[in-house]
Design a protein that fits this description.
The complex is a heterodimer. Chain A is of the alpha/beta class. Chain A has helices at residues 27-39, 51-55, 78-84, 103-116, 132-139, 146-163, 175-179, 184-206, 217-224, 235-257, 262-265, 285-296, 322-338, 352-374, 382-402, 435-450, 453-468, 477-486, 490-501, 520-536, 554-565, 579-589, 603-617, 631-639, 653-667, and strands at 17-19, 21-22, 45-48, 94-98, 125-128, 167-168, 171-173, 226-229, 269-272, 307-309, 541-547, 569-577, 593-598, 623-627, 644-646. Chain A has two domains: 17-412, Methylmalonyl-CoA mutase (TIM Barrel); 520-667, Rossmann fold (3-Layer(aba) Sandwich). In chain A, helix 1 (27-39) links the parallel strand 2 (21-22) and strand 3 (45-48). Classes of the chains: A alpha/beta, B alpha/beta. At the A-B interface, helix 20, helix 21, strand 12 and helix 22 of A face helix 2, strand 3, helix 6 and strand 4 of B.
Chain lengths: 674, 326
């Protein structure tokens, strides 16, 4: 074997941290899952919280209906957090929490749970995702308006850099931008712009403070900012993207924030590879997609991930089971321990192709960052970026529909044998026990009854007081931790802040989306709309919305934009709607059809609830449903009165539009020939 | 339910009738047109024994001026029982008009998502409509809808997008027109001076939290209005508001709108609206040829002026059609 250090490392690199994004049902069930995962060789934790926890509602809130314990674990108070971490030594564990609007609260609960284990906060290691701008842009689990949201983030940075120094207070996310349709250039530019907004806010918060060694604290802050990125199946370009981000990051540190220490200037990132490209059709193909995407973030040593979590092969079908997630963990382990990927220095060093790709991406990203800066920075540019993402996604879908972008098993090579993977009664996915919600509500009642209510009231009053002091130097983390210790709940913490900060609805991006170029199919659709308009007396009007707390609005947005391009009047109501709200809107707006999108798995509760409210309001219009709907749930939904159900395998939106128009026509007694 | 029945329900103050009323008034199906006539007849001044008591307010301004946020704040103020001067809560119907795509004819109606309101509140109705191909910013049916809903709701808001020409048609329909601008928007100033834009009844400068810039804008607009000779009682009020919490200027705006309404000769303004609507409708139905058949536009206007002021717009159209056939 050669010992040439330019060819081979003297010592094999240590593997990245391996995680599985996991959590469901209850704290107890999730704790058992975490301990099993750790026993299988997972080296860090990645907590998935349920949507009520992510958006600041208790399980007994009306908006939480159907969502409790679904896409993650419900954590309502310190008791839940303690149960979640039982038997897991928090002084040694590295925990990543996908939590944003309520990040300060969940970190506080984690600090208190550690105290219970006798672990001081200084020892804690981990990450709170805490990137609110991408929630406005792509993921939808925001709770407060932009300004107070940024204040919470700055406070967390200021607090952790002093008291929890090994904590990454924020993971700037490019991940969700790609999931929302971002091109590599957009992914780089918007996440870097986002980081600038966060760092500027932090700089304002900490001023010219210095650390214990007398250096500017800003260096420590810069060094604690990590990224959470995505990697798609075009893995060479994706690798180039990460190299470009590393270059921009270092540049930003030196030039904008005066950071000199090399250690602080390193671009550190964790990754979850792409879910957007995973298909429902022939889902076994997703395994090779995931493997190739993992290469994007591991091949080149100079831009290798610090932590990786891989999606499961069946994410387009429903929630993955522990076995599905084990398969993804094993992919990481084979890559790290069986292959030679960790044995070499950077294998792309000196590659003209790689350098050229990086340069292209840098040029594009710099230009786009300048546009965001012109809008006044990432916070102000949210509507601009949102519209740009909706537009990119529209183009992506158009390419797939037209067959220009090949998706094996979906728009090409579609002939298939029946898959044994989905042959079981549940269709190869995890089904959360519906009793969980009632149990959580009951447990919450018991928790409230047992705590010292006076102490909770006092703690929340103090939280409200600090929140109202806009320009004060008081850090919101302090009363937040005190409220956690006193036994307040997630919903109470968030409600207290909502009352002070006000609530907020993010821009939908659909109004600004570019009209689709006219093609033959669209022209036919417009013709169909025009005929229907003649027969109905009004232009066909559709209500598009998302019931429940799920904020993944890509699908709903694309349906809304296409319906407009087809010539319909579209009422797009966005995310987080209650069934009563949907019924009231349908009634007031006089729509001809309702399109609902759900990806969180709560369709079995929410859709029948919507149907009931519609009946109650006397609205008799067809309802269509789209989202991640397992095959076995389709029939029950139709029984409940749903006119049609669409899942990820229905990628041809034009065909969906044609269906909708036919359904409206039939419902109104317009002959099909019209 | 028939148009006449729906009209009667509105007359009785039954807000729940409103969605069905709008379905009929927006429709161009032949059967619905007949129903619409019957409906409007039931809420004509003659049937009501006077003008509909609701306050029709046009709110217009360029995109991004903060209209939705302002309307959210106004809604809160109107719905608060202990609002301005201890007034009772007022019921509000909001007709939000969005532009249509020139290419497809379709539209994305986004106001419902932008305006913050309590969806369980039965005293608020929001209806989004597309302007369609009409110039002037109003959807077909919006004129009739505003007039009909004013019989049941305390406040009827017509919200349109644009600045310059767009508010012209709103001014034809509304009792009070408020133009919304954000600080630093010089175009409104230019439009006012050049007479491209009619002088609104109330000018609202949003984002007063921007401080100096908002103050300057308010000062410039006030100066421009004075130079146009608008001063003294009944002159355009310029009000700076901040719709974000803590909201400022909203109560002042509510009173300014109320005061304008109080100084207005309502019967005169509504009569003008009905005549203008009738003429517009007649012209769009029968074209220039139709106008010539009644002896020209001036003659048509004279004929309308001679009609019973208690008639609704469709009845006025019928009078014109009768002359045309004669």
């Amino acid at each position: 074997m050669s010992s040439d250090p330019t060819v081979r490392l003297a010592e094999r690199d240590r593997a990245w941290m391996m995680r599985t994004y996991a959590g469901h049902s209850t704290a107890k069930a999730s704790n058992e899952l975490y301990r099993r995962n750790l026993a299988k060789g997972q080296t860090g934790l990645s907590i998935a919280f349920d949507l009520p926890t992510q958006t600041g509602y208790d399980p007994d809130d009306e908006l939480a209906r159907g969502e409790v314990g679904k896409v993650g674990v419900p954590v309502s108070h310190r008791g839940d957090m303690e149960a979640l971490m039982v038997g897991i030594p928090l002084g040694e564990m590295n925990t990543s929490m996908t939590i944003n609007a309520t990040a300060a609260w969940l970190l506080a609960l984690y600090v208190v749970a550690a105290e219970e284990q006798g672990v001081a906060q200084e020892q804690l290691q981990g990450t709170t995702q805490n990137d609110i701008i991408k929630e406005f842009l792509a993921r939808g689990t925001y709770a407060f308006p932009p300004a107070p949201s940024m204040r919470l983030i700055a406070d967390m940075i200021a607090y952790t850099v002093e008291h929890i120094p090994k904590w990454n207070p924020i993971n700037v996310c490019s991940y969700h931008l790609q999931e929302a349709g971002a091109t590599p250039v957009q992914e780089i530019a918007y996440s870097m712009s986002n980081a600038i907004a966060v760092l500027d806010a932090a700089r304002e918060r900490i001023g010219s403070a210095r650390n214990a060694r007398g250096e500017p604290l800003m260096g420590d802050v810069f060094g604690r900012i990590s990224f959470f990125v995505n990697a798609g199946v075009r893995f060479i370009e994706e690798h180039a993207k990460l190299r470009a981000m590393g270059i921009l990051w270092e540049e930003l540190g030196r030039e904008r924030y005066g950071v000199e220490d090399e250690r602080y200037l390193r671009f550190r990132y964790g990754v979850q590879v792409n879910s957007l490209g995973l298909t429902e059709a022939q889902p076994e193909n997703n395994v090779q997609r995931i493997v190739l995407e993992a290469l994007a973030v591991t091949l080149g040593r100079n831009a290798r991930a610090r932590a990786i979590q891989l999606p499961a092969w069946n994410e387009a079908l429903g929630l993955p089971r522990p076995w599905d997630q084990q398969w993804s963990l094993r992919i990481q382990q084979v890559l790290a321990y069986e292959t030679d990927v960790l044995e070499y220095p950077d294998i792309f060093e000196g590659s003209k192709v790689m350098d050229g790709l990086v340069q292209e991406l840098l040029d594009g990203a710099r230009a786009e960052m300048a546009v965001v800066a012109e809008h006044g920075g990432a916070v102000e540019a949210v509507p601009y970026m949102k519209a740009a993402l909706v537009d990119s996604h529209r183009q992506r879908i158009g390419r797939i529909e037209a067959g220009e972008q090949v998706v094996v098993g979906q728009n090409r090579f579609v002939e298939t044998e029946p898959s044994p993977l989905t042959a079981d009664a549940e269709g190869g996915i995890l089904v959360v026990d519906r009793a969980v919600e009632a149990e959580q509500i009951e447990a919450l009642g018991a928790w409230r009854a047992a705590r010292d209510q006076g102490a909770v009231d006092e703690a929340l009053a103090e939280l409200a007081r600090v929140a109202r002091e806009e320009d004060s130097q008081e850090n919101l983390m302090v009363p937040t931790i005190a409220a956690a210790r006193a036994g307040a709940t997630t919903g109470e913490w968030a409600r207290t802040l909502r009352e002070v900060f006000g609530s907020y609805r993010a821009p939908t991006g659909v109004g600004e989306a570019t009209a689709a170029p006219a093609d033959h199919e669209l022209a036919e659709l417009r013709e169909q709309v025009a005929r229907l308009e003649e027969a109905l007396g009004r232009r066909p009007k559709i209500l598009v919305g998302k019931p429940g707390l799920d904020g993944h609005s890509n699908g709903a947005e694309q349906i809304a934009v296409r319906a407009r391009d087809a010539g319909m009047d579209v009422v797009y109501e966005g995310i987080r709607l209650t069934p009563a709200q949907i019924a009231a809107s349908a009634l007031q707006e006089g729509v001809h059809v309702i399109g609902l999108s759900i990806l969180s798995g709560s369709h079995r509760e929410l859709i029948p609830a919507v149907m009931e409210e519609l009946r109650h309001a006397g609205v008799d219009v067809p309802v269509i449903v789209g989202g991640i709907i397992p095959e076995q749930d389709v029939e029950p939904l139709k029984q409940a009165g749903v006119a049609a159900v669409y899942t990820p395998k229905d990628f041809e939106i034009t065909r969906i539009m044609r269906d909708i128009l036919e359904i409206v026509g039939r419902h109104n007694g317009v002959p099909a020939s019209v | 339910m028939s148009g006449a029945e729906l009209g009667k329900r509105l007359r009785d103050g039954d807000l729940a009738a409103a969605p069905a009323v709008l379905n009929i008034l927006e429709s161009r199906a032949p059967g619905d047109l007949e129903q619409a006539k019957a409906l409007l007849h039931e809420v004509s001044p003659a049937a009501l024994g006077g003008e509909a008591q609701g306050h029709i307010i046009g709110v217009t301004g360029p995109p991004g001026a903060g209209k939705s946020t302002l309307l959210s704040a106004l809604l809160r103020a109107w719905r608060a029982a202990d609002g301005a001067a201890g007034a009772r809560a007022r019921t509000v119907a909001m007709l939000a008009v969005d532009p249509s795509s020139k290419r497809s004819g379709g539209s994305l109606l986004g106001d419902r998502a932008r305006i913050d309101f309590d969806p369980s509140d039965r005293g608020v109705l929001i209806r989004s409509t597309a302007a369609g191909n009409r110039l002037g910013g109003l959807a077909p049916g919006t004129r009739a809808a505003a007039q009909a809903l004013a019989a049941a709701f305390d406040v009827v808001v017509i919200e349109t997008v644009g600045v310059g020409q767009a508010e012209t048609e709103v001014a034809d329909v509304a009792d009070t027109v408020a133009v919304v601008v954000q600080p630093g928007s010089g175009d409104v100033l230019q439009f006012l001076k050049a007479g491209i834009m009619e002088t609104p009844d109330v000018l609202v400068v949003t984002k007063a939290d921007l401080g100096k810039l908002a103050l300057h804008t308010r000062r410039d607009l006030s100066a421009a209005l004075r130079s146009l000779g608008a001063s003294g009682p009944g002159a355009t009020r310029v009000i700076a508001v901040s719709s974000l919490p803590p909201a400022e200027g909203i109560e002042e705006l509510v009173s300014a709108l109320d005061e304008h309404r109080a100084t207005l000769d309502l019967a005169q303004r509504r009569l003008r609206t009905r005549r203008a609507s009738a003429l517009l409708e007649f012209a769009s139905e029968h074209g220039e040829q139709g106008l010539r058949a009644v002896g020209g536009r001036r003659e048509a206007e004279r004929l309308l002026e001679g009609q019973d002021p208690g008639l609704d717009a469709p009845a006025l159209v019928a009078a014109l059609e009768k002359r045309m056939a004669a």
